[in-house]
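User: I'm putting together a small comparison set for a docking exercise, and I want a reference complex before I start. The sequence is below, and the ligand is zinc ion. Could you produce the 3D structure with the ligand included, as structure tokens?
Assistant: Of course. I'll restate your input first, then give the structure tokens for the complex.
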Amino acid sequence: MKRPYACRTLNPPMLVSELISNVSATWDKQLVQATFLPMDVQVILGIPLCTRNVPDFWAWHHEKHGFFSVKSAYNMLVATRNRREAWLEEGPGPSSSRAEERAWKHLWKTQVPGKVRMFLWRLSKYSLPTNDVQAHRHMSDSPCCGLCGARDSWHHSLVECTSSRSVWALMNEEITHKIITTTEPKAKQWLFTLMDSMSHKDFVLVAVTLLSIWYARRKAIHEAIFQSPHATHGFITSFISELEVESGEGQEVLPLQSAGMKVETFLAVLLS
Ligand SMILES: [Zn+2]
């Protein structure tokens, strides 16, 4: 069942019957032309009209006959999911190289709860509401950090700001060194480089730390609730051990789906 491409008017007729002349029982050509684009007008005027009096009914767009079927609803849901996944994974587009495609897949497979993975994705897409981004969108008066007053950016918020530095300083030296010496200006490349230069276990730790720093900053800036770097570090350690308990000792791959609920709840409780 085809749909018109677009309407030309702000308030198009709601019912098909409004497009039909009562007197002649034919399409109201003038109204059809005023409502739809020329290519749609041609198709609509070509549809033969029923001369019997049939009551109005809701038509299901995904079946030719207009009647709802579970099969077509299922197909529609699967197609929608596939489209969303392709979008989230940034499937091979004309501008993405194979290396980048691989890096995205790798990043997307990081064995962390969905909330952490979504945070990494938002970071790489510059969709974290840091003040520089907010000011650019005219949603903040100042592009400066709400904690220290320096110019804000994803890197400032998560790495350079004094409170964030203090959290990184409590991590093991190797990770701290990598965080400081990885200087890619773009968040996405910065994440990819970190991911390639460390073990999966360390990258999970980095991902959880980034999210924890972000939450602690939001609490401090928006609710004036200040968490000490040691408290943030303590949370990260508990979170990671919870993940490890869920994954089982010595197991390389974390069964996320089964771990998901408990860890999400844990995160919600600790961060609330
Ligand atoms: Zn700052």
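Residues 107 and 192 are 7 Å apart (CA to CA). The radius of gyration is 27 Å.
User: Thanks, that's exactly what I needed.
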